[in-house]
Amino acid sequence: MTRPPPAPLRVSVTSTPPKAELYLSSAELAAAAGISLSRLARLIRLGMVEPPALVAGERGLTAPVFPAAAAARLRRIRRLHEDLGVNFAGAVIIVDLLERLHRLEAELAGRRGNP
Questions:
Q1: Strand-pair category, 19-25 with 9-13
Q2: pLDDT digits 0-9 by tens, 8-34
Q3: DSSP label at 16?
Q4: How confident is the model over 42-53, as a mean pLDDT?
Q5: Domains in the chain and their CATH numbers?
Q6: 63 CB neighbour count, 10 Å cutoff
Q7: I want to staple 64 with a disulfide (CB 3.0 to 4.6 A). Which of 39, 51, 92, 97 is the partner?
Q8: How many other CB atoms are there within 10 angstroms of residue 24's CB atom?
Q9: What is the sign of the dihedral through the CA atoms of 101, 106, 107 and 112?
Q10: What distance in Å separates the CA atoms of residue 16 and residue 27, rounded to the nearest whole number?
């Protein structure tokens, strides 16, 4: 019998201004991205995804947490790697460029809306 995944954590990350965002544990992120924990650990070691925060866990240990948007990023990387045969380094470059393109398009759309 499999257990349902735990509910996502809500933590406050210190920024300017402070805000509450939806964060996922490593296990939650791996499940949401459709990858194993060992694959997630490898991608973290390779710098393909980085936890922006640590939260106190059981027995005083700290655990990394990831923004919920990291799951979509990892799904794109996984799809490029598994479905299209792109190596991980190439997949990260493609995803980074796509994210940059979307940000620039949003910025351009905002400028067009504001004379």
A1: antiparallel
A2: 544 444 443 345 568 888 899 999 999
A3: S
A4: 82
A5: 9-113 (1.10.1660.10)
A6: 15
A7: 51
A8: 24
A9: positive
A10: 28
Phi and psi, residue 71, nearest 5° = -65, -45
Helices vs strands, H then E, count in the chain: 4, 4
Nearest to 55 by CA among 41, 65, 70: 65
- Give the mean pLDDT of 56-85: 83
Q: Which two tokens stand for residue 91?
A: 């997949």
- Best CA proximity match to 39, nearest among 20, 53, 48: 48
Q: What is the pLDDT of residue 96?
A: 93
Q: What contacts 82, CB < 8 A, 6 or more positions away?
A: none
pLDDT confidence bin for 72, thresholds 50/70/90: very high
Residue 60 has what DSSP assignment?
A: G
